[in-house]
Write a structure and sequence with these properties.
Blueprint lengths: L2 H26 L2 E3 L2 E5 L25 H24 L5 H23 L2 H4 L1 H27 L5 H23 L10 H21 L24 H10 L1
Length: 245
């Protein structure tokens, strides 16, 4: 099995496990969100994903789905490492940028682990700081991946489009989140709505990358390097090519 195929499987497995774990955590969440602590059950558009990992839900009751919520974040974070490696492999002409993206992805994954265990019910503002610590390198990795895909014109355009959408939603959501940390009443509901949309876009981006093959260098083996034409080749090289033909 090739390295690319192993990465594909790791990405798909990460998305599948994350989806199953989040669904479980949502079903078990007792209730409450930042705008109404008395709300019953999980609210798709008003609960943060981090709420699912709280040991004590926002309504004050023990949260039996906290472990599933934590594992969901850990599984998704682990999937970011092969995902960004796979995505940058689709843009081989931006290899240097790709290496930077892979480094940022590793930093992001470790920071998300911290977010999962520094829960808001126990650590308060420290949890918000952990979210910012994970968000900055994560957005930088996303921006680098999108730039790499845009730079290499052979990269798949659907993967680029999914990445651009994810990055746009993530940037707006992160900006709103940082601007409203500690705000009374939870700030604008748009923060949680955009988080949901950005998460769905990220999952779609991951799956789009996993089903694509890297740029096939063999397709370009017969093409001339940039700036080199047949007429500029040395006579000896031309003679050798003609004999080989």
């Amino acid at each position: 099995m090739t390295l690319e195929r192993r990465r594909d499987r790791a990405i798909v497995l990460s998305v599948a496990l994350f989806t199953a774990l989040v669904a479980t955590a949502m079903a078990l969440y007792p209730g409450g969100h930042s705008w109404d602590s008395r709300a019953q059950g999980h609210d798709l558009w008003r609960n943060y994903l981090c709420d699912l990992a709280r040991g004590i839900a926002l309504d004050g009751q023990p949260n039996p789905g906290a472990l599933a919520g934590k594992l969901a974040m850990i599984v998704l974070a682990a999937g970011l490492v092969p995902f960004f490696a796979r995505t940058t492999s689709l843009a081989p002409r931006a290899a240097r940028l790709g290496r930077a993206v892979r480094t940022l992805a590793s930093v992001t994954a470790m920071a998300v682990f911290l977010v999962a265990f520094v829960s808001g019910d126990r650590y308060g503002r420290l949890h918000a700081a952990a979210v910012v610590l994970a968000g900055v390198p994560g957005l930088a990795a996303g921006a680098g991946a999108v730039l790499a895909l845009a730079w290499d014109r052979r990269s798949p355009r659907d993967v680029l489009g999914a990445g651009a959408l994810t990055l746009g939603l993530g940037l707006v959501d992160f900006t709103l989140y940082v601007a409203n940390v500690g705000a009374d009443g939870g700030g604008p509901v748009a923060v949680t709505v955009l988080q949901r949309l950005a998460t769905v876009a990220l999952l779609a981006w991951m799956l789009a990358a996993a089903r694509r093959r890297p740029a096939d260098a063999t397709q370009h083996a017969g093409s001339e390097p940039r700036g080199v034409t047949r007429g500029s080749r040395p006579p000896v090289a031309l003679e050798a090519e003609e004999k080989a033909a």
